[in-house]
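ok posting inputs for the manganese (II) ion job
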Amino acid sequence: MTNISTIEDWFSRRAGLLIAAGPCSVESRSQMLGIAEALRGKVSIIRGGIWKPRTRPSAFEGVGEKGLEWLHEAGETAGLPTMTEIATPRHLEAALEHKIDAVWIGARTVVNPFSVQELAEAMRGIQIPVFVKNPVSMDVKLWLGAIERFETVGITRVAAIHRGFPDNDTIYRNTPHWEIPIELHRLRPDINIMTDISHICGRRDILTETAQKALDLATDGLMIETHCNPEDAATDAEQQITPSALEEMLNVLIVKKNISEEEKIISELRSRIDIIDDELLRLFAKRMNISEEIGRYKKQHGITVLQMGRWEKILNDYLKKAEKLGLSQEFVKAVFEQIHKESIEKQLEDRS
Ligand code: PEP
Ligand code: MN
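and the output
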């Protein structure tokens, strides 16, 4: 892959791809100097999280303000600009004090218009590139609304980062639901969108294919969490890659010219089907696990496996629901008869 852009060109001329790489969390000075050396000349901007939004307070919540010095020094060493996540006006102030070049607003912050507005107000009169991640809820207007809040206070360089959406069980940590960034692009074709494949995938083995998909559906850049010792990372160890793996990935990715609108639409629709089929498989597995659990319970309590009356009633209910959903009765009947048959076998397995 060629044509890695500088942040200036990317915003002013939308030239090339913006590649943001660096660790999930800034951990130490030596970690940051190591990654800086490895990324020099290879990416557009170094990322690093200073304050980490964690589900539970006992988890590592980032090194805090002292890490900004290490991030800044890493940028100087690599000759690259730097970016970090901010969630409060105090974070912004600290990032500016330490000459951090750009900020991103995290998915858990974007979901709250009060927080976004507060951050936007704190930026009045300041010029710093702002990258707005999609909110954790699948709501394109909330995403766009956050972008508009920064534009309204006069920020001229605002871009979007697609990082996927927490979802049912899929192969992804955050399912991409490509139709959402595509809709954002339709509503605001002037806004650059990059794809944070790390938080979409949550694992290393599907990063490259996901990056290629993003490029085919016309992303303007990639965010890829990169760490010299991914396994030892303080956060998101499963999804980070080494600088050499990053280089390898960037080498195999292809920026296809002339992908027609039709091809993009088909490709997006196919990925929706793939995601749903994958979900169906996982649902079947979940369903059968419960059947096995019921089988064990019935065995312990001397209850018979097959209860015909219950099954006939359930099937009838499903057929009524199917009709309302516009599904054919034959199809739904055939599917559920197979599921029921397999479920009975699962319950009996334990008894043999
Ligand atoms: C991150 O980029 O490290 C991060 C926490 O992102 P998100 O807000 O997308 O979860
Ligand atoms: Mn992370």
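notes: The chain has 14 helices and eight strands. The beta strands are 18-22, 45-47, 82-85, 102-105, 130-133, 158-162, 193-196, 221-225.
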